[in-house]
Specification:
The protein is built from two helices and no strands. It has a domain of 38 residues. It is elongated.
Length: 69
């Protein structure tokens, strides 16, 4: 009876590295998407200023609150 045979594993297999077929399209897409991502980020930051929590209360709002009370 033969013992268990060891199957060869590919320890020397290359992982990662430069893959031109994938990297080429990635670079092309990144050039197109970067300005869009920057614009979207700017809009998010701009809209964050309009949230009620972040608003700075002006005198006119403070006066109108006093009138209501």
């Amino acid at each position: 009876m033969r013992g268990r045979t060891h199957r060869k594993t590919r320890k020397n297999r290359k992982s990662g590295g430069f893959m031109p077929s994938v990297m080429g399209s990635f670079v092309a897409n990144a050039r197109m998407l970067t300005p869009l991502a920057i614009a979207a980020g700017y809009r998010l930051m701009d809209n964050a200023k309009q949230v009620r929590k972040n608003r700075v209360h002006t005198r006119s709002k403070a006066k109108s609150r006093r009138k209501r009370q």
